[in-house]
Amino acid sequence: MNKLVLKTEGDTQIVITRRFAASPELVFRAHTEPELVQKWMLGPEGWSMPVCINEARPGGKIRYEWSNPKRGSFYLTGEFLVLEPYRRIVHVERMHLPGPTPDNRVETIFEPDGDGTLMTMRMNLPDAATRAQMLATGMEGGMEASYVRLENLIQVACC
Amino acid sequence: MPNLDAAFSALADPTRRAILARLANGEATVLELAEPFDITQPAISRHLKVLEQAGLIVRRVEGTKRPCRLSKDGVDAIDQWLAMLRKALARNYERLDQVLADIKSADTKSSNRKEKQ
User: Fold this and answer.
1) A60 is in which domain, residue-wise?
2) What is the distance in angstroms between the Cα of B37 and the nearest Cα belonging to chain A?
């Protein structure tokens, strides 16, 4: 089963696990090569990622910009801290709406699992209130945003 | 209809989560709710007020008591929201499954070509 599991841990963490039918090398590449990231990290239908900067090296920058013809656009910035090829990524990220959200420190681990990969993504928020805010607004580190809520925010801001 | 921001903020506190867990077993008075905690009754009442304003509990009047119970609407709203979040996430990863399958099939084709050469 490749079912997504999303759970909270302690007061400040969100943990997501998911299995993929591909090697850790491929799944790692899909998280670090911009032309691959642009194909899937899109949230609900209707959004695209016209800008995808992903400097996959320690200290390298991340910048993802999402756009929806009806809803407007927003972006995420971040920095890579650790890259252990095909096994582990640690990075920091924040959304800009347009003000920046508190930093989210994300550790992503890719483990071989039979002929596939088990991915575990652990998000560390600075405090319980920030995590509550993130869950309430659905902005799970940009990639998994349930942008529906965000769309509402943007609409309110625009109209 | 509960306010999701207020509901998640209310849930960020461990005492309030424990109160909700207790209420999942059924209605309780402030006195009963305060019992397992090492905090004063007024402090519990303040937590209850936060939970009530967030739409997570409802209270009724029974003489001088105001027993509390979980608000079905509030709990359902949180469940629905988290389900939606999971769905958006799941959609991303379904796309990633397809990207991975495409790379694998492209790799297979190119290695087949190499073998033929």
Assistant:
1) 5-158
2) 19
Nearest to A49 by CA among A33, A65, A72, A37: A65
Cα separation of A148 and A139, whole Å? 10
Range of the domain at B66: 4-116
Nearest CA in chain A to B80: A136
Judging contacts by C-beta atoms under 8 Å, the chain A residues touching residue B20 are none
Q: Per residue in A111-130, pLDDT tens?
A: 999 999 999 999 998 888 78
* pLDDT one-digit tens code per residue, A7-45: 778 888 888 899 998 999 999 999 999 999 998 988 777
Cα torsion B81, A106, A112, B92: sign: positive
Question: What is the C-alpha to C-alpha distance for residues A57 and A37, in angstroms, rounded to an integer?
Answer: 16
From the list B8, B92, B97, the residue facing A144 with the nearest CB is: B92
Total domains present in chain A: 1
The number of folded domains in chain B is: 1
Q: What is the CATH number of the domain that holds A146?
A: 3.30.530.20
